[in-house]
Amino acid sequence: MLTHEIALEWIDRWDRQQEGYLPDREARFTALIDAVEALGRPDPVVIDLGCGPGSLSARLLERLPGATVIAVDADPLLLALGRAAYPGLRFVSADLRTGGWTRALGLDRPADAAVSTTALHWISPEELQETYAELAGVLRPGGVLLNGDHMDSSSPALARLEHAVHQRETDRVFADRRPEDWRAWWEAIAADPAFADLNEERTTAGASHNGSESHLVEHHVGALTKAGFGEIGTLWQRGNNRLLCAVRG
């Protein structure tokens, strides 16, 4: 039985290992939620794409308690953690690469925003265009996509500098001790007998994602443009860690 307390403990450990790659993770969360709040609705409908265990969704609902936040992921283990930890959130199991995934959202009106952090880079550029096109169909005109992730410039010189800025900040923050990394977190939860069934389920479902297929800004800008989004630009950035915003036309 996955309890609320145990789920929170694992999610806290998840957050710590994520911060090892993003020492300014909370600052990016804050900028993203600021942008959702700036849309001006006290009750926005927000879709969290690739939500993991719900770290961003929980922060959104804490800041905007009138919001409807729909957290979407394909990983059964991370969804189970989120459901146990955050009963006020709605979690949906769906693969963003599969056509028709928006039907599972159960929307009763167009969404005001779609958000994502450190999740969409594993989708190939070709699949990303289809994901964004389907998303555009459920966002209201003027609705936004806010995607926080490591996204590199296509210019080699700029990309090198962006990586250098990010790496120097990481080295400063974690000069004394490096946090647990992504692989170690997954190895630890795989070794816990309490998660045996969920680990087997995620293996069967092929829910593990590795790599960064869509790691360039231009991958996302091109896919968003073809999907019918208009204005596209970076709202916040530190090195190659950026918050990309696209407005649905």
Automatic annotation (TrEMBL):
GO terms for molecular function: methyltransferase activity. Keywords: Methyltransferase, Transferase. Pfam families: Methyltransf_25. Residues 46-143 form the Methyltransferase domain. The keyword Methyltransferase applies. The keyword GTP-binding does not apply. GO terms for biological process: methylation. It comes from the Bacteria. PANTHER family: TRANS-ACONITATE 2-METHYLTRANSFERASE, TRANS-ACONITATE 2-METHYLTRANSFERASE-RELATED. This is Class I SAM-dependent methyltransferase. It comes from Nonomuraea spiralis.
